[in-house]
Design brief:
Elements lengths: L1 H33 L1 H4 L6 H13 L2 H22 L2 H7 L4 H43 L11 E2 L5 E8 L5 E9 L8 E12 L5 E13 L14 E13 L11 H4 L7 H30 L1 H12 L15 H67 L5 H26 L5 H5 L1 H18 L7 H18 L1
Antiparallel strand pairs: 1-2, 2-3, 3-4, 4-5, 5-6
Helix pairs in contact: 1-4, 1-6, 3-6, 4-6, 4-10, 4-11, 6-10, 8-10, 10-11, 10-13, 11-13
């Protein structure tokens, strides 16, 4: 049995590694397609792009592992069934459940590793990926000025070049708008010709202008607004230098991103949930006291006023015979503090709802870590059972079945999560909805596979329909 177990695991590991990296590649391409506009055209070095891709890939490991287990188990047991190796093992007295045992244990270890990875490695990798994405997103496009285009990539300047020579340095018909004073197009420079180049360290952009004019209509602090000052000058040669530091990639430290990670660990989520629950309990305890404090205006004002005025001989208690002014004052107090009580109640309710939303998000993320890990184990039994039933190896039929079940799992998980977010069902039921559906399917397929039932045989259903048609005909 030890030799058979080693043989089965070897047969499984190859397709598993292949399908795992294939799933990572597909998920990564979908991710990069979403953010391709923020990456392309910025002159990034290859190591920066590879670093961003590497950290982003870590976020898809927990999702790719169930998919790889399902497809690999389908391919492995389908190939064993197609080559009659399963028949040979069964004829030797080895039941199918025992044949599945080594790969089932291996799949369980994969699920445990998936949970550990999602809980310990993925949060750090996700933080670093978010940090690199922030650096890439804030980086400007590669510095490039085209002919006849008003280029606004330089801070506080807009440059238009009429014509560029083939060497890329000699230029003509240059127009520069200076917006550094925040007064619009009040400072303009024009030159008939010139040269441009970038310093060897890529830190500065240098312009040498020839035969030009300079206009300045900006208003200084000591200039009266009813006057229109104008400064005009002509030059034969002028130098301008522009800072290109905003076009350089600057790596941000991860410290600020670690304070608000998108994928906290189970321990961090548990601590956050305990804190949020405590805040909710405290808010609910403060709610009635705060409401009554604003609503019981009689105890706070009229009764208090009565006690303080008992020694006053001219004091008249509030009765039906009280003056209209006194009664109106009491009614104004009533309306005012009823509004305060209502506003306070609404504000406290919104605070409680906000805390409940935070608690719900944390619970969803907490359950997701467990459901993705457990799905590795369930998908193995589904894939192994289907492979033993259909007895087809290769990549064709197993890939179709894998896409169907993984799509079903993903759709049920998404539906359950959305229902849980809107308080349609408890978070536990919503996040475990796909598991509740897949588990009976797993048990049914495993039972059919061990009983050598032809679940997907066309002949079986054809005979069943013929039998049903014959019975109906006989009854008539």
């Amino acid at each position: 049995m030890k030799i058979i177990y080693q043989y089965l695991i070897k047969r499984f590991i190859g397709p598993f590694i292949l399908t795992f990296f294939l799933a990572i590649f597909i998920l990564l391409m979908q991710f990069l397609w979403k953010y391709v506009d923020d990456v392309v055209g910025k002159g990034l070095e290859i190591h920066v792009i590879l670093e961003f891709i590497f950290y982003a890939s870590a976020s898809f490991v927990s999702m790719a592992m169930p998919l790889a287990v399902l497809l690999a188990s389908l391919m492995t047991f389908g190939s064993l069934g197609e080559k009659y190796e399963l028949v040979a093992m069964k004829s030797s007295g080895i039941p199918l459940v025992k044949i599945m045992m080594p790969i089932a244990v291996f799949s369980l270890l994969i699920g445990i590793f998936s949970f550990w990875f999602a809980n310990n490695v993925a949060p750090i990798a996700n933080t670093k990926a978010s940090c690199r994405y922030y650096d890439i997103k804030t980086l400007k496009q590669v510095f490039k000025i085209d002919e006849g285009v008003f280029y606004d990539g330089l801070p506080n300047y807009i440059i238009r070049i009429g014509k560029k020579e083939k060497n890329g340095e000699k230029i003509s018909d240059i127009l520069i708008y200076d917006h550094s004073r925040r007064q619009g197009n009040t400072t303009i420079t024009y030159a008939k010709s010139g040269t441009m180049k970038i310093t060897p360290d890529d830190q500065f952009f240098l312009l040498t202008l020839y035969d030009g004019y300079f206009w300045d209509e900006s208003i200084n602090d000591n200039t009266q607004y009813n006057k229109n000052p104008l400064t005009r000058a002509k030059f034969k040669k002028q130098y301008k230098k522009f800072d290109l530091s905003t076009f350089q990639f600057q790596q941000t430290t991860d410290a600020s991103f670690f304070q608000d990670r998108l994928l906290p660990t189970v321990g961090e989520l548990s601590k956050q949930n305990d804190t949020i629950r405590g805040e909710i309990v405290q808010l609910k305890q403060e709610l009635p006291n705060d409401f009554l404090r604003n609503l019981h205006f009689y105890n706070n004002y009229i009764l208090k006023d009565t006690i303080q005025s008992e020694r006053n001989e001219n004091f008249i208690p509030i009765t039906k015979e009280s003056s209209i002014t006194k009664q109106k004052q009491v009614l104004d107090y009533a309306v005012q503090y009823a509004d305060l009580g209502s506003s306070s109640l609404l504000f406290q309710h919104e605070r409680i709802e906000a805390q409940n939303e935070s608690l719900k998000r944390n619970l969803i993320e907490l359950h997701r870590k467990f459901t993705l890990s457990l799905s590795c184990f369930l998908f193995f039994f589904i894939g192994a059972s289907l492979g033993a039933i259909i007895r087809k190896g290769g990549i064709g039929i197993p890939l179709v079945i894998t896409v169907f079940f993984f799509t079903l799992h993903f759709a049920l998980s998404l539906i359950g999560e959305n229902i849980a977010k809107v308080d349609g069902v408890p978070v536990f039921f919503g996040m475990w909805l796909s598991t509740f559906v897949l588990f009976p399917i797993c048990v049914f397929l495993t039972y059919k596979a061990t009983a050598d039932s032809a679940v997907f045989s066309v002949e079986v259903y054809e005979k069943w329909f013929r039998k049903l048609f014959f019975l109906n005909k006989k009854e008539t």
